[in-house]
Design brief:
mainly alpha; Farnesyl Diphosphate Synthase; 2 strands; globular; transferase; Polyprenyl_synt; prenyltransferase activity
Length: about 325
């Protein structure tokens, strides 16, 4: 099923246009370098998956299908938090490009990039506090601690060939799925939904987020750098052992030697990618992603009938179908 991204966003097109305008205003900084760093991030674009989900869920869980100013601000806050996490990720992983453009720490330096990331986290926290909803503040604030937990787990497990799929999924939750899950839940909180509905959309976001990360990790193996917008094989280079490699080790134990050598040169990475592609690992990883997509869809399909559910279903398949 080919899913057009424009069709997914059709119910919230106007809100998304305004979101892109507002993001640049929200990260305005007095220091020109800090402002340039922040502007570089948002000029690079991105699909705005998290804001889209917040806005769609706002419509689904509201009898009038309205999107309140608070929901619009929450959508902006989550995109700022996500972007801040990417800045810090790029420093840790020493990525040269992100979304096809030079990363902040390469355009400026590590110190400026760290400060830019911190600045974005601080700005998001300030806007979050101004929502005047303590429950939402608690839910979204937890995400920032989860990011740190995910990075620590990833660092500890670097080049650890004994990592299990369970540990990989736990780390993926902290690094990716937590923000999506908590954003979905926060959207329902702003509509004063009951705890059951809040929990439903939290679980929907969690499974969707895990699928998103698994697909991302597959793309790191099978895509070209120009399509990824960042160097291919970056996960291998940084010792971040993901689902495709974990599954491939089961079939091709010779990968252990390359991991032990920590992929010392580019040829090692290319060799590992070729080996992985010869196994069933890519399909197994895709099956795992599809399993989480189905879990997400089962939650909303069985309980909600609003027409905007169609867009959430489409976004689920869009995430899965990023693999051509």
């Amino acid at each position: 099923m080919i899913i057009s991204f424009d069709k997914i966003t059709q119910p919230i097109n106007q809100e998304l246009k305004q979101l892109n305008i507002n993001l640049k205003k929200m990260v305005a900084a007095e220091h020109p370098i800090l402002y340039a760093a922040a502007e570089q991030l948002f000029s690079a674009g991105g699909k705005r998956i998290r804001p889209i989900m917040i806005l769609l869920i706002a419509k689904i869980t509201n009898d009038q299908q309205n999107i309140s100013p608070e929901h619009k601000r929450l959508a902006e806050i989550t995109e700022i938090i996500h972007t801040a996490s990417l800045v810090h990720d790029d420093i840790i992983d020493d990525c040269e490009t992100r979304r096809g453009t030079v990363t902040v720490h390469n355009m400026f330096n590590n110190k400026i990039a760290v400060l830019a990331g911190d600045f974005l986290f601080a700005q998001s926290s300030w806007y979050l506090a101004n929502l005047n909803n303590l429950h939402v503040v608690k839910v979204i604030s937890k995400v920032i601690t989860d990011f740190a937990e995910g990075e620590v787990q990833q660092g500890i497990k670097s080049f650890d060939k004994t990592i299990s799929i369970e540990s990989y999924l736990e780390k993926s939750f902290y690094k990716t799925a937590s923000l999506i899950a908590c954003s979905c839940k926060a959207s329902t909180i702003l509509n004063n939904c009951n705890p059951n509905i809040q929990n439903d959309f939290y679980r929907y976001g969690k499974h969707l987020g895990l699928a998103f990360q698994i697909i991302d990790d597959i793309l790191d193996i099978i895509s070209l750098s120009k399509d990824l917008g960042k160097p291919a094989g970056a996960d291998l280079k940084n010792g971040n052992l993901t689902a495709p490699l974990i599954f491939a080790i089961e079939e091709k134990p010779e990968l252990n030697q390359l991991i032990n050598q920590e992929f010392q040169n580019k040829e090692d990475i290319n060799k590992a990618i070729k080996i992985i592609k010869k196994t069933k690992a890519i399909q197994k990883a895709k099956d795992l992603a599809e399993e989480h997509i189905q879990l997400a869809l089962n939650i909303i399909n069985t309980r909600y009938t609003n027409y905007n559910i169609i867009s959430l279903i489409k976004i689920s398949y869009y995430i899965l179908n990023r693999i051509k």
